[in-house]
Design goal:
FAD/NAD(P)-binding domain; FAD/NAD-bd_sf; FAD-dep_Monooxygenase_BioMet; 11 helices; six-stranded mixed β-sheet; about 400 residues; 22 strands; seven-stranded mixed β-sheet; FAD-bd; D-Amino Acid Oxidase, Chain A, domain 2; 2-polyprenyl-6-methoxyphenol hydroxylase-like FAD-dependent oxidoreductase
Length: about 400
């Protein structure tokens, strides 16, 4: 191992906490700086793919996450008007060995934060890093900390440290968490319903949240990014009527939403830093690359970034380690960014011909060998080596 160094991590999110645990395990002195009064998650449900679960296992958080989450064996989507399947992806239809993990962000956060608390890692709360220069970090309250040998920017999509300029996507989605109801929908699959590409409804089983043993679901509804205020003004009953007309099976989920306040708007963007580092500073997760959630890879990319950075620092030091981290992640990130950019308009856009192409050509082709195997590799995150040159996950 190279020399032990002093590291500051901006942001106590999934990537930042994971990086802290991985780096502390290698003997580095790690401090986390987070803007909240107490570290906390933001958002509803997500899917941790097999590669992401493997990273969680490296820090001893995998079993805790799986105990709270819900195994997902399949992603199934159908078209609203005629009921045709237009998405059908199995994680491991034959052997049943690998699966996606549907989980609430609060549950995932609890599993990872517990791993951090079990290590000698200092966490600074109410401490948003606004600038980083020459090994020093300047907080929003004016205080400075340092010097640090390395500053890791994991402060997310709005990081003040990241120069990333991204392209806003025309569509986003509202998300909420409800109890898993009595329903014919399997609790082993992500279920979705589409009308053309301008309506998308989904129900994702996400297991339990801390302090509540009732199985939960994350529900979502696609809408143009500037339509949220209109949606609120029209009232919750109008939305519930439209959603359940399009997809009657969604009714027991929608019935639990009694106020627009139960749903949170998420807006998305695409963008990638060509060089996610400068001397003494490296960007990981959404601070380095942003994409729509169509392939469910955002959190997994942050986990993989954290592991790649830790292994690059095992192999060398200084700027050479940051360049090695970038090289190891470049093709995996670029490929998934490109696929996300290509797939998103097929499911979230005002296009009429793209969903027709999706339903009548791309979906039938995807079910012909080797299509199913390729789709499985895409969702599992293994289409390309995630840590090129730095070993297996």
């Amino acid at each position: 191992m190279t020399k032990r160094i002093k590291i500051a991590i901006a942001g106590a999110g999934i990537g930042g906490l994971t990086a802290a645990a991985l780096l502390a395990d290698r003997g580095h002195r790690v401090e986390i700086f987070d803007k909240f009064d107490t570290p906390q998650p933001v958002g509803s449900g997500l899917v941790i793919q097999p590669v992401g679960q493997a990273v969680l296992d490296h820090i001893g958080a995998g079993d805790a996450a799986r105990a709270l989450g819900n195994p997902i064996q399949r992603m199934l989507g159908h078209e609203a008007d005629k009921g045709r399947k237009v998405l059908n992806v199995w994680y491991d239809k034959d052997a049943g060995g690998q699966f996606g993990l549907g989980i609430h962000r609060a549950s995932l956060f609890q599993a990872i934060f517990a791993a951090v608390q079990a290590r000698d890692i200092k966490v600074h709360t109410q401490s948003q890093i606004n600038t980083a220069r020459s090994g020093m970090v300047q907080l929003a309250n004016g205080r400075a900390h340092g010097p640090f040998d390395l500053i890791v920017d994991s402060a997310g999509a709005g990081s003040p440290l990241s120069p990333l300029v991204s392209q806003p996507l025309p569509y986003g989605a509202i998300w909420g968490t409800v109890d898993w109801p009595k329903t014919d929908l399997p609790r082993t699959q992500l279920s979705q319903c589409y009308r053309s590409a301008n309506r998308m409804i989904g129900a994702l089983p996400i297991g339990k949240i801390p302090g509540d043993a009732t199985p939960k679901a994350a529900i979502f509804w696609s809408m143009p990014r500037d339509s949220y205020d209109t949606w609120v003004a029209e009232g919750i009953e109008a939305w519930k009527a439209e959603a359940t007309t399009l997809w009657p099976a969604f009714a027991p989920f929608a019935a639990q939403v009694r106020s627009t306040d139960q749903m949170t708007m998420a807006r998305y963007a695409h963008g990638t830093l060509r060089r996610p580092w400068s001397p003494g500073l490296v960007h990981i997760g959404d601070a380095a690359h942003k994409a729509s959630p169509q392939l469910g890879q955002g959190a997994n990319m942050a986990l993989l970034d954290a592991l790649a950075l830790a292994r690059a620092l095992d192999a060398t030091s200084g700027d050479a380690a940051l360049a090695l981290y970038t090289k190891a992640r470049r093709w995996h990130v670029m490929t998934y960014q490109a696929m996300s950019s290509a797939f998103t308009p097929q499911y979230q856009s005002d296009s009429r011909w793209l969903p027709a192409l999706r339903d009548r050509l791309l979906y039938p082709l995807s079910q012909v060998p080797p299509g199913p195997r390729v789709l499985t590799a895409i969702v599992c995150g293994t289409m390309l080596p995630p840590l090129r040159g730095l070993g297996r996950v």
